[in-house]
Request: fold
Amino acid sequence: MKNFTYFMPTKIIFGKNCIVDNSSVFKDMGKKAYIITGKHSAKLNGSENDVKTALEKEGIEYVIFDKIEENPDIETIFAAAKKGISEKVDFVIGIGGGSPMDSAKAISCLILNNEGEPKDILFGEQKKHLPVIEVPTTAGTGSETTPFSIVTLHNEKTKSSIAQKIFAKYAFLDAKYMENLPVGITNNTAIDALSHLIESYMSTNSNFLSEKIAEVGLNVFKDCIPYLINRQYPFEIREKLLIASTIAGILISQSGTSIPHFLGYQLTYDKGIPHGMANGILMKAYLELFGENKKVDNICNILGFNNLYELGDFHNEVLDIKEKFTYDDIKAYSGRSFGNKAKLKTFPRNLSFNDILNIYSKSLL
Reply:
């Protein structure tokens, strides 16, 4: 068994109404909170109101930045940080899917480190940051338990995780915020969680402990498969999807993501394909690269599939894929992706440019 380290500092608080019922948590964080969210969903699903109720209950001031867009760029994050600086906030609360939660982490860093270019700060050496609390309102990114923050880089025409590693101090998990999620968002984010479980399990960075936890996560996800196919989501399935997503976040905190993620970023940037869907489109071809492999077989067995073809059919069945691609598209994507040497090292053998091209070709053409 190879040596490994395991670090998971985020305290997870799970259950219906867990934010208001555990409002005392906020009292130890500071006197003024900075709520980071998008324009609409946190207001509609009640999560923003619950956070405000909890803060008011404890006598804590708050300000809100609700302009986080899908796949936020550094400009938006910097604008939010400037407001946080002027308001002299003590801690940051991210409410939403991956975009607001990731942004909350980056903003917490820029508030304390504001001299110089934001990109240089975020992608530079590790710096101090304000404490962060995360409230997921989708079940997919796992950002509530990862140290990662993904931002859009327009010059590079892709997305990337910043260099700063920022764990939330607390993560509040309440599936009631997901009860009215549309089918598309539910399934796309669920596939994102599944891709985290699979990529962590298959990565060269995995270890004995993370692999056992991945198998638990895959078993939880298995219970959700019929409901994702039928597009019906009772509350207990919403809770299981949320748990699977959070487990997956814990896993990629240890091993990181792998090839489907950085290849999928090209599809999201270029075609606007949702992140989870992009991962799912590429998953079968990625796993085929392993050839005969016990861990791949184990994934299929745990999920209840006889082989990779059935796993691929499941992805096609739950994702509404409409976009079309050309050979010129995939050549451009392959060229940009092949430069990511760190992600290529998560595969157990050296991958060639043609290997990357073949993943895109099998998946998109």
